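Work Package 3 (structural annotation) set out to generate three-dimensional models for the target panel prioritized at the project kickoff. During this period the team completed the workflow that converts sequence records into discrete structure tokens, so that structures can be stored uniformly alongside our sequence database. As a representative example, we reproduce one entry of 107 residues exactly as it appears in the project archive.
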Amino acid sequence: MIFSDEEIYGAVKYNLPKTSEYVKSHGGGVKLLGVKDGKVYIALTGACGGCSMSLMTTKMVIQKELRILIHPELEVMNVDGTPENKLPEDCYKEEEEGLIAKVKNLF
């Protein structure tokens, strides 16, 4: 992927509200946790947090929309407490001042 984790984080943060309408309609929310090696880590909150359909929501709704808006190879992982979906300790978590403005210029 041609973008840095920092750039992807900013792009996801900027575009996440556009992708979370479906989740909101079901009483849930989406929280951006971090980015590592181009992989985006989120947590579904509210009613969607423990839902048995959370994997489908992550892949078929959030990942699908972010791939359209940001990059077609973007991978989104729902950090749900299972070992395979764990947030890496060294992932990029914070945006630098003005990053969102920089990202807006990319789109």
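Residues 2 and 19 are 22 Å apart (CA to CA).
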